TrEMBL record:
Keyword Transmembrane helix set for record: no
Statement: the UniProt record of this protein carries the keyword Membrane: no
Any Pfam family: HTH_5
Residue span, HTH arsR-type domain: 1-100
The protein's name in its UniProt record: Helix-turn-helix domain-containing protein
GO molecular function: DNA binding; DNA-binding transcription factor activity
Superkingdom of source: Bacteria
InterPro entries given in the database record: ArsR-like_HTH (IPR011991), HTH_ArsR_DNA-bd_dom (IPR001845), HTH_MetalResp_TranReg (IPR051081), WH-like_DNA-bd_sf (IPR036388), WH_DNA-bd_sf (IPR036390)
UniProt organism field: Aliirhizobium smilacinae
Keywords, in A-Z order: DNA-binding, Transcription, Transcription regulation
Length: 100
């Protein structure tokens, strides 16, 4: 699996998106008040609560991370739950280490 390094680096260029990924690394600590099981992923409204940004801004940040391949989305009805794509993240870090 090869990643699009440029797309990922663009996604990581915004501190809010980096924070999202950091928070998702330890969901039990950062999203303990989510009503749905954390195994489903993190509901978008949890990011809104944590960072205080509008729904549309949070959605745009999540879409950028998803487009870069850093997030997986699990849709359940009208809800979207997000989780880190650990395989893509590991591949990206390995490629970056070997090429930069």
């Amino acid at each position: 699996m090869k990643t699009d390094k440029t797309e990922i680096l663009k996604a990581l260029a915004h501190p809010v998106r980096v924070s999202f990924l950091e928070w998702m690394r330890e969901p039990e600590q950062n999203f303990c008040d989510q009503a749905h099981p954390l195994e489903m992923g993190i509901c978008a409204n949890q990011f809104e609560k944590k960072c205080g940004l509008s729904q549309s801004t949070v959605s745009a940040h999540l879409a950028t991370l998803e487009k870069a391949g850093l997030l997986k989305t699990n849709r359940v009805g009208q809800w979207a739950f997000y989780s880190r794509d650990e395989e893509t993240i590991a591949t990206f870090l390995k490629e970056l280490k070997s090429t930069l």
